[in-house]
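Quick one:
INPUT:
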């Protein structure tokens, strides 16, 4: 009887140990898989971001630049189909569509901007904090840059609301500060915009995207240079 009881106890203990080890192995397998998936996702996104920067700030041939942008847009669309739940990819596809829209005629531009708007709204629902709130920054910029009614959906009130939401999520975000600076420059004057331009220049974002970082800083300086030139003109008067 004692032998049977010992055998039973040892069997139970062995089963418990086996299940714990099996559970541990499965958990670690999942963790590794998720980490690899996250790395692959970041690698895809980073490669698209770097290609965008190269085309925007380094490619001088306009025809090659346009072909490059169309190819990049197709690549991001394909990746989004493979990863339909990715807020990051939705945001970057929207960004590319916004930039393509700027080169189109009125009605095609409106259609493309509406596609970008839908992508950004979906992305912010999936993950409001994706890319440090960049979806909200682009929504604000889109509402500010789109044609107003009756031609399109441009709306300065919504633009300001989304830009402030982006800054609330990440007050030091380079592009959120730059976009809000552009907004203020348009509606309230350069003096109101300047603090946000300066904050954008102080941002340490994009350590893996040097071309984008330097290119965006040049754009910000251009926006600030106008202020300096206008002040010099006023002094001459």
């Amino acid at each position: 009887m004692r032998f049977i009881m010992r055998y039973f106890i040892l069997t139970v203990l062995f089963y418990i140990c086996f299940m714990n080890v099996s559970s541990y192995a499965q958990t670690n397998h999942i963790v590794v898989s998720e980490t690899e998936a996250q790395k692959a996702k970041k690698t895809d996104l980073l490669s698209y971001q770097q290609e965008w920067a190269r085309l925007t700030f380094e490619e001088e041939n306009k025809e090659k630049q346009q072909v490059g942008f169309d190819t990049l847009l197709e690549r991001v669309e394909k990746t989004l189909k493979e990863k339909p739940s990715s807020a990051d990819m939705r945001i970057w596809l929207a960004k590319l569509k916004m930039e393509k829209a700027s080169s189109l005629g009125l009605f095609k531009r409106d259609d493309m901007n509406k596609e970008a708007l839908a992508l950004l709204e979906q992305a912010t629902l999936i993950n409001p904090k994706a890319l440090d709130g960049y979806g909200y920054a682009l929504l604000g910029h889109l509402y500010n840059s789109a044609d107003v009614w009756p031609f399109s959906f441009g709306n300065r009130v919504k633009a300001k609301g989304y830009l402030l939401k982006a800054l609330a999520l990440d007050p030091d975000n380079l592009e959120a500060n730059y976009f809000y600076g552009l907004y203020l420059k348009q509606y309230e004057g350069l003096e109101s915009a300047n603090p946000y331009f300066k904050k954008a220049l102080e941002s340490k974002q994009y350590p893996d995207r040097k071309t984008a970082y330097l290119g965006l800083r040049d754009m910000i300086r251009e926006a600030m240079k106008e202020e300096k030139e206008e002040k010099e003109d006023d002094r001459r008067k």
